Amino acid sequence: MRHKILLILGIAPFFMSIKSYAIPLKTAQEADFNIEKDLLLVQFDCKTDVDDLHTVAALVTLMSNSKFSKVQYHAVTGTYGNQKGLYVPPNDLFQLSFGNNWTDAHKNFNYAVEKVKNIVLKTLQNEGDLWIAEAGQSDFTAELIKAIQINLPKMKVSKHIHVVQHSDWNETHTSTENLKFVQKYADYKKIPDGNKIGNGTPGFRDPTYSYWKNKIRTPDLVNIWQLATDLSKKYNGKKGRYNNKAISNGGLDFSDLSEVCWILGIQNIKDIEQFFTFSLL
């Protein structure tokens, strides 16, 4: 018996160490997001920080995981608020990453609202919910909700439209009126900042992480990441644009993806290393 006890005590730390490295992830089915019915709308401001370019590549990487192959999603660029500075042109990256599954609000804001509204209406009319990851400000979201309300005046928006924001900066650069409108009429959720590690959401900003090529093997994903990093180097800090120091140092920043992870129930991913380990299973 004494030998058995010693054996158990000896192997216990081993199993405890294994458990400490495990990621207690929920599956998409266990989260509030209904993978069969709901729509994920990922909105990028692309002004003036180039981190959105890395977020696009990370989003496509996550969607390549078989767990999320059935997720219905749509991307929108140009959903910026009142911040000053130049736009970061992402069209080549969006076309490579999403094909025709994206909308350009920078080119034509009103047309984009109408186009996205029609996509969303199909989901809502089929008893699905809309989940918006705000990789930017909420001004576009406000106009989108107003347009939906015209078509579905009896729908209680806060039960079916969920907005997730992680950034104080994004909130302060949304018009006060539009931010209050979204917070009032949508199910608005503010989560901890995705730029930091250990605060309850993934930390996806790391100035020292430059070896994505060691992780990505799929040719299509390699091309997407290469274009994302090339464009980010081209525009980062140029002509008055925001200088993202993590990226200028050669690292990665896809902090806005923390919202997508929260929506899909995988918010317990710790950092970029764990993101690649999980996404590329």
Task: Report on the architecture of this protein.
- With 281 residues, this protein is α/β, with parallel strands linked by helices.
- Helix content is 45%, strand content 12%.
- It has a 6-stranded parallel sheet with strand order 3-2-1-4-5-6, sandwiched between helices. A two-stranded antiparallel ribbon has the order 7-8.
The main sheet comes to: 6 strands, parallel
Question: What's the order of the H and E elements?
Answer: HEHEHEHEHHEHHEEHHEHH
Classify the helix fraction into a percent range.
40-55%
Instruction: Report the uncertain regions.
Output: 1-22, 24-31
Give the number of DSSP strands: 8
Topology:
Layout: H1 2-21, E1 39-44, H2 51-63, E2 72-77, H3 91-98, E3 102-104, H4 109-125, E4 130-135, H5 139-151, H6 157-160, E5 161-165, H7 168-172, H8 176-185, E6 187-190, E7 205-206, H9 219-235, H10 245-248, E8 252-253, H11 257-263, H12 272-279
Parallel strand pairs: 1-2, 1-4, 2-3, 4-5, 5-6
Antiparallel strand pairs: 7-8
Helix pairs in contact: 2-3, 2-9, 3-9, 4-5, 5-8
